[in-house]
Design goal:
The complex is a heterodimer of chains A (about 350) and B (about 325). Chain A is built from 12 helices and 14 strands. Chain A has 2 domains: about 210 residues, no CATH class; about 120 residues, no CATH class. Chain A is globular. Chain A is of the alpha+beta class. An 8-stranded mixed sheet of chain A has the order 3-2-6-9-10-11-1-12, sandwiched between helices. With about 325 residues, chain B is α/β, with parallel strands linked by helices. Chain B folds into 3 domains: about 120 residues, no CATH class; about 40 residues, no CATH class; about 140 residues, no CATH class. In chain B, helix 2 links the parallel strand 4 and strand 5. Chain B is globular, with a radius of gyration of 20 Å. Classes of the chains: A alpha+beta (about 350), B alpha/beta (about 325). At the A-B interface, helix 9, strand 13 and helix 11 of A face strand 2, helix 3 and helix 7 of B. The structure holds iron/sulfur cluster (SF4) (5 copies).
Chain lengths: ~350, ~325
């Protein structure tokens, strides 16, 4: 066991000492909100944060990533041949990630790394990333991690866990990756009984503070077609702007679009995040759009997260309960409400 | 505000009962403080869900486009001006609408409130006329509404609805001593390089979710130019030039039509003040054509009329 206690400044100094071993992402204050950024970019980490506005998803799965490049120059003997673009798979660590966001990675991993399909870039980045979590002493009113299998101090998907004890952190190693990270850190003293007791009390207190708990117990047994044809979708979708904010901020949405961009004789094949909320997402080459109405797109979002995923992976819902979509949806479409409606739906 | 809510509920109930309208569009109270949700109700019993307060800063005109039924809808100054524009542009017929006018007192800027309490989580807001109380787990602070208005509301000179069939309350006094374009003037004074820098920074965080476009009643094109693929006007990745192109072009499409309702800014997940683009064009329209959008049903916006006898040379 490498569990240690670090004074807060010592912890940050220790992280700085690891810069040659890892690219370290930390929460920093960015304008009005927090965001995960590489530690080297000059901004001080701020671990006293509620939740970042954008999830850390982009660290492993960038908004836009060049997959391949090619030349369109006929004089080039290799014209029109796709070549893989260089990518960075060096070890990285996300320090201060919330347990729900680590859960988010686990959920996306099920989609990108399974017996049917392996996304090579995701798999390599996921493999080279260490997740050093931070327990939530102060969950928000919008958090519902405990309703979807997690919790403010849930360790399952993390490699290490920091607990904020006021003037110091208790840091627990949870996996080999996590232990390896901590073994490289300087400073810290072996964790004492008192620190564990304090951490336990904080965890207990935090789980009491979670006030939202949408029910999910019946989702699995609901008939897909009943939910699909449920009468509430038009109503649920009415206010929706189809803006995709919910998708882009969500740690568990994984959909993408692949586009070719050409500049002069140089071409790039780029993968971009996409959202089922956009009409373009399902537009066929023929011009036909199977989801050309707003309520169909909204229905897709919730059916995917709370029914199709549930049935396909038999491992809970495609939501980590981070509450971002609840906080930032500009028209207050609340997944907790919709989950409850779907779960409690009685077909006529 | 409580008064308005009751009045709206009463009117909606009556209209639906008397079958004067098929549906009624308004807001319901949100599940989050400072967030309300647009709703459409169809039965008189549902009228009790309707709600109004100083956080109804979306634009309900956005929900009217191309509807074919008879609609009751609430509208404050800016929303009603967009309805005028919608009628002129044939997106809805005047006869289809029963407009319940709301003399507006301005919307509170939810971001300013969050900033004022240093981003501590807000659990509840109590609105008492000129002041409001912000409550969190371990704090309670009172603020003056006047100081927290959305920046468009602070300089709004058309708070009363322009067209309506009924009002929920007495008309309010219009503001007259505001200088609406101080921010634009500052940008106008910059040299081209500085301007470029200013706008590049302004949109620096934009994630191109297009929430601003989707919240705007003016943006009703069946396929927006950014979504076109043949030809593809704008790239899909995160190239800043594409982002700037989106913002410039969208602003030009809104020239002479924008009512400065602020819905675009309100919904931006990244808090980008993209009204800086549309406001410049609003100012130009005012100075060049003495035009403010949506004030009259009798005249089309200046940039969508062609007159062979136009006195300007460039048009000939
Ligand atoms: S649910 Fe909300 S955040 Fe998601 S697309 Fe609709 S309006 Fe945007
Ligand atoms: S659906 Fe909403 S609450 Fe669930 S993980 Fe995504 S953003 Fe978080
Ligand atoms: S289908 Fe929609 S909800 Fe599902 S992952 Fe894709 S964007 Fe997210
Ligand atoms: S809403 Fe904001 S982030 Fe989204 S496209 Fe508009 S300016 Fe960009
Ligand atoms: S551009 Fe913005 S301020 Fe202007 S009408 Fe559209 S939403 Fe309102």
């Amino acid at each position: 066991m490498t569990d240690k206690v670090y004074g807060k400044e010592k912890w940050i100094q220790g992280l700085e000492g690891l810069k040659n071993d890892y690219k370290i992402y930390v929460p920093v204050k960015d304008g009005d909100f927090h965001a995960f950024m590489p530690m080297s970019e000059g901004k001080a980490p701020d671990f006293d944060y509620d939740n970042t506005r954008m999830s850390p998803k982009a660290v492993m799965y960038p908004e836009s990533e060049r997959l391949f490049e090619y030349s369109l120059d006929d004089a080039d003997p290799e014209a029109n041949i796709l070549k893989e673009s260089p990518k960075d798979f060096s070890p990285r660590a996300i320090v201060g990630i919330r347990p729900c966001d680590a859960h988010g990675f686990q959920i996306v991993n099920r989609n990108f790394d399974n017996p049917e399909y392996r996304d090579p870039w995701w798999v390599r980045r996921f493999g080279s990333t260490t997740l050093v979590g931070l327990g939530c002493n102060r969950p928000c009113s919008t958090c519902f991690c405990t309703a979807v299998g997690g919790g403010p101090f849930h360790e399952e998907w993390l490699d290490a866990l920091m607990v904020d004890l006021g003037d110091r952190y208790l840091v627990k190693g949870l996996t080999d990756k996590g232990e390896g990270f901590l073994a490289k850190m300087t400073g810290g003293t072996p964790a004492d009984e008192g620190a564990y007791k304090e951490a336990e009390a904080l965890a207990e207190e935090a789980s009491q503070k979670i006030v939202s708990s949408p029910p999910t117990d019946r989702l699995k047994d609901q008939k897909t077609t009943d939910l699909f044809n449920a009468p509430f979708w038009e109503e649920v979708a009415f206010g929706c702007l189809n803006c995709g904010t919910c998708t882009y901020l969500c740690p568990t949405c994984w959909c993408f679009d692949i586009q070719d961009e050409v500049f002069g004789k140089q071409g790039d094949r780029i993968r971009n995040w996409d959202s089922c909320m956009f009409p373009l997402f399902t537009l066929h080459g023929s011009g036909h759009n199977p989801r050309d109405q707003k309520f169909q797109r909204v229905r897709q979002r919730f059916m995917h997260k709370l029914k199709y995923y549930v049935d396909k992976y038999e491992n809970g819902v495609q939501c980590s309960g981070c509450g971002r979509c609840v906080r930032y949806c500009p028209v207050n479409i609340d997944i907790r409400d919709i989950c409850e409606r779907m779960n409690n739906f009685e077909s006529a | 505000m409580v008064k308005y809510t009751e009045k709206i509920q009463e009117i909606a109930k009556r209209l639906l009962q008397e079958e004067k309208v098929d549906v009624f569009i308004g807001y319901r109270k949100g599940t989050m403080p400072m967030m309300n949700q647009p709703v459409l109700i169809t039965a008189p019993e549902e009228a009790a869900r309707l709600y109004w307060d100083n956080f109804c800063g979306l634009n309900l005109c956005n929900y009217l486009t191309k509807r074919t039924d008879r609609i009751g809808v609430i509208a404050n100054g800016c929303n009603s001006r967009n309805m005028v524009t919608h009628i002129i542009e044939n997106q809805i017929q005047r006869e289809q609408l029963y407009i319940v006018g709301i003399p507006c007192e301005g919307m509170i800027d939810h971001r300013a409130v969050m900033r004022a309490v240093h981003y501590k989580e807000i659990l509840d807001i109590e609105q008492n006329g000129k002041t409001f109380v912000v409550k969190g787990a371990d704090f309670e602070e009172t603020f003056e509404k006047e100081k927290f208005l959305q920046s468009n509301c602070a300089v709004c000179t058309h708070r009363n609805p322009v067209i309506y069939d009924e009002l929920v309350g007495e008309l309010v006094e219009e503001q007259t001593d505001v200088s609406a374009y101080e921010d634009v003037e500052k940008v106008e004074a910059m040299d081209p390089e500085k301007k470029q820098g200013f706008f590049t920074r302004l949109i620096g965080r934009c994630i191109r979710c297009y929430a601003c476009r989707n919240a705007c009643p003016l943006c009703y094109c069946p396929t927006c130019f950014v979504d076109e693929s043949k030809p593809q006007w704008v790239g899909k990745s995160i190239d800043p030039t594409d982002t700037l192109t989106f913002h410039f072009l969208r602003a030009y499409h809104c020239a002479g039509r924008c009512t400065d309702c602020g819905a675009c800014e309100r919904v931006c997940p990244m808090g980008i003040p993209m009204r800086q683009f549309t406001k410049k064009l609003n100012k130009d329209c005012l100075e060049l054509f003495s035009w403010e959008a949506g004030l009259t049903l009798d005249q089309r916006p200046p940039l969508d009329v062609y007159r062979p006898d136009d006195y300007n040379d460039f048009i000939k």
